[in-house]
Request: fold
Amino acid sequence: MTNTENTIMLDVLRYRPEQDAKPLLQTHCVPFSEDMSVLQGLQYIKDYLDGTLSFRWSCRMAICGSCGMMINGKPRLACKTFLRDIYPGRLRVEALAHFPIERDLVIVMDDFIEKLESIKPYIIEKQPRLLSQGEYLQTPAERDLYEQFSSCINCMLCYAACPQYGLNPRFLGPGIIALLHRYNLDSRDSGDDQRMPLVNSEDGVFNCTAVGYCSEVCPKLVAPANAVNVNKANSAKDYFLRFVMPGGGEK
Amino acid sequence: MTSPVSSGRRPYMRPMQGWWRRNTFYLEYMIHEATALFVAAYALVLLVGLVRLSQGQAAWDGWLQALRSPLSIVFHVITLVAISYHTWTWFNIMPRTLPPILLKGKRLSEAAITHSGLAAAVIVSLILLGLVWSLWA
Reply:
């Protein structure tokens, strides 16, 4: 902390299940310098002001996806948001919206993890490939199709941005559908028929009303709204094709 | 998930009431969705015109007369503004809903999709206006 003259007011939403009936705001005055991120502000509180404050973090450089939280009402990564952009204003930090709060800024992410598992986020081969067959070959054009969707870091900011997920947590949601799309688009993968039932289901893509805020808040420019909406067309195609395909087209 | 009761966990779920007022992005979304009602209202006006036309000359003239009333003109001006806003936001969202469009091996940019959509809307509107104008004059 090089410059301790300037300070910034930091309101943090606290929730300690053993003593709080519901979350409440706690205010701290934190030293401010030009190069400090919101995450560093929180770390200052934990180190010097109140060691009981709980929050998740790891890499400090927007790649682990752990420190997603509501910063002045918007879903952001705490490590990628700088105090200088808020100073001299007041900073308000809350746990990611639309998820249950476990404690302070820590959310319950079980739902997200279960959905992540359900879409089989790995390459499913048509036939098991032998080591002797060598590596898969893929052209740059084939790779370009899915590359953007493979940048997802599972930070869940898009879920905190999606009011439809907030209203109906059964909805598969933007980030998971983007990942599902990523594998379906991969030329090495042939798992579409295992994933499409999830897209088509009651909890699938048609819960989306194209609010579009998920793409707006994504720190890795994945554009989950695009993945969701393109899959609305894919789902409709899936539905209508069975009327014209031999064998009902049921995959 | 282990049972929150037995483990002492007590996850807190925040309410969703008034969610669309929490963020200007949501507010804009709600306004954009609300302007769709004006699109529906205007479709209804045209449908009524079609029904009146099928009922003969007198009914049709009556409908035309009703359209000239000050109240109808105010309604048309408000509807024009609402539908223009709807068009604007519609084409702004369009790049998010389309699969990638390849042009000479390059992906069409979001701005190009939005601008060509808006241009198409303006051109079609002008052609329609010119057509109606020439029939009327």
Observations:
- The longest strand of chain A covers residues 7-14.
- Chain A has two domains: 7-107, 110-249.
- Chain A has a mean pLDDT of 93.
